[in-house]
Amino acid sequence: MTLKSLIKLTQLMQEYPLTVIQWQILLVIAENSGETITDLVNDNKLLCGTPSDIAVSVKRLGEGRHDRPGLGMIKKVKHEDDGRYFKLALSAKGKRLVDKIKQKMRHLK
Question: What are the backbone angles phi and psi of residue 17, rounded to the nearest 5°?
């Protein structure tokens, strides 16, 4: 990637209120729908922190907390074999955002 492309990418990312970690999580989930946080970390697909750190970002990207609403970009479904785990997928809102970003990134090259 050229410096000019990197600058354009940085400007593009500033259009949306997400951290780099949140972007990585969205993009990885888009490519690996139905996997758990633990699966994504253990398979070295998510390298942006510990499972606990990532869980906090997933909560923010999803339903949020009692004192802070989430962004509604990720949906969680209880794992059928172990209720302590959740399978992750993008919501319709998350899919639209990821598709929009991917389309814009194609034009950066």
Answer: -80, 50
CA 37/CA 34 separation, integer angstroms? 10
Which two three-digit tokens encode residue 13?
A: 């990312």
For range 61-85, the mean pLDDT: 89
Tell me if 16 sits within 8 A of 27, measured CB to CB: no
Measured distance CA(59)–CA(104) in Å, rounded: 26
Nearest to 27 by CA among 77, 69, 68, 61: 61
Closest by CA to 25, choosing from 106, 102, 103, 98, is 98
Question: What pLDDT shows up at residue 12?
Answer: 76
d(CA 54, CA 37): 7
How far apart, in whole angstroms, are the C-alpha atoms of residue 35 and residue 28?
10
Contact (CB, 8 A) for 35 and 79:
no
pLDDT tens-digit readout, 30-65: 999 999 988 898 899 998 877 788 888 999 999 988
